[in-house]
């Protein structure tokens, strides 16, 4: 697939007006993961006792089902990331991180240009890379580790786990992970609205194509 409409129309030296950023599997993975995580929020906070809607037993069933579905999706996604080499998009860097902080705190409210120019080989700005790394290295292990311990609590006595761990601590850890995920979710959704129009980034994640300024020089 060509990466520019300019190339697609044969106008070899015209600047690209859009770039193909997200491949089909990536978009499928993104939206199905989003759906699964929203289901986990809704059912998880019902299990927690924040509100009553499906009923406790049903909420536990749906929560567990979504966890297994997410696990299967991640298995495919990890395979995809490594076979395509796309995992490199998540390697952390501090290059231009300071400029991005200034942009998010000030520039974005004063029409300053975004200091980071996306390309097919570098889709995430340095702050995004750091946020995704924190999610992958800290929040996910916390939520998955505690979730799996919660799920297999019936086996604790035979494995001797109940001699050093209480269910209450697992519940605290899991709930803390859920709140961290909630913070990530709200920041993530806010940042989707910061493209050249409020829905531009969302459209990119639906179609795969990102519109770029004529002076887009990565
Ligand atoms: C975005 C991801 C997730 C969120 C937001 C979330 C949220 C929650 C919350 C808020 C609770 C109630 C905790 C309490 O008050 O004790 C809960 C319970 C639970 N979660 Fe999750 N969770 C997520 C992922 C997972 C995963 C990946 C697993 C499994 C591997 C899992 C398994 C469980 C289990 C087994 C329970 C307890 C159900 C019961 O009481 O029988 N969760 N979750």
From TrEMBL:
SUPFAM superfamilies in UniProt: Transmembrane di-heme cytochromes
The residue ranges of the Cytochrome b561 bacterial/Ni-hydrogenase domain are 22-208
Q: Which controlled-vocabulary keywords does the entry list?
A: Cell membrane, Electron transport, Heme, Iron, Membrane, Metal-binding, Transmembrane, Transmembrane helix, Transport
The UniProt record lists the keyword Secreted: no
Q: Where in the cell is it found?
A: Cell membrane
User: A single GO BP annotation from the record?
Assistant: respiratory electron transport chain
How the protein sits in the membrane? Multi-pass membrane protein
Q: Major place of localization? A: membrane
Pfam families in alphabetical order: Ni_hydr_CYTB (PF01292)
Which protein family is it in? Belongs to the HupC/HyaC/HydC family.
Protein name stated in the entry: Cytochrome b561
Q: Which organism is it from?
A: Rhodoferax antarcticus ANT.BR
């Amino acid at each position: 697939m060509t990466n520019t409409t300019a190339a697609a129309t044969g106008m070899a030296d015209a600047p690209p007006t859009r770039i193909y950023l997200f491949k089909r599997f990536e978009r499928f993975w993104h939206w199905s993961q989003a759906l699964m995580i929203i289901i986990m929020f809704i059912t998880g906070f019902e299990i927690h006792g924040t509100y009553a809607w499906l009923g406790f037993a049903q909420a536990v069933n749906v929560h567990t089902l979504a966890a297994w579905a997410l696990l299967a999706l991640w298995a495919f996604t990890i395979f995809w990331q490594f076979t395509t080499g796309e995992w490199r998009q998540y390697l952390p860097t501090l290059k231009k991180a300071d400029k991005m902080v200034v942009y998010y705190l000030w520039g974005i409210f004063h029409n300053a240009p975004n200091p980071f120019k996306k390309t097919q080989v570098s889709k995430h700005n340095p702050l995004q890379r750091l946020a995704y790394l924190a999610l992958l290295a800290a929040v996910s292990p916390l939520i998955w580790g505690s979730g799996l311990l919660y799920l297999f609590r019936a086996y604790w006595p035979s494995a001797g786990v109940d001699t050093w761990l209480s269910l209450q601590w697992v519940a605290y850890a899991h709930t803390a992970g859920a709140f961290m995920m909630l913070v990530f979710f709200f920041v993530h959704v806010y940042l989707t609205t910061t493209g050249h129009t409020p829905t531009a980034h969302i459209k990119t994640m639906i179609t795969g194509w990102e519109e770029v300024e004529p002076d887009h020089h990565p």
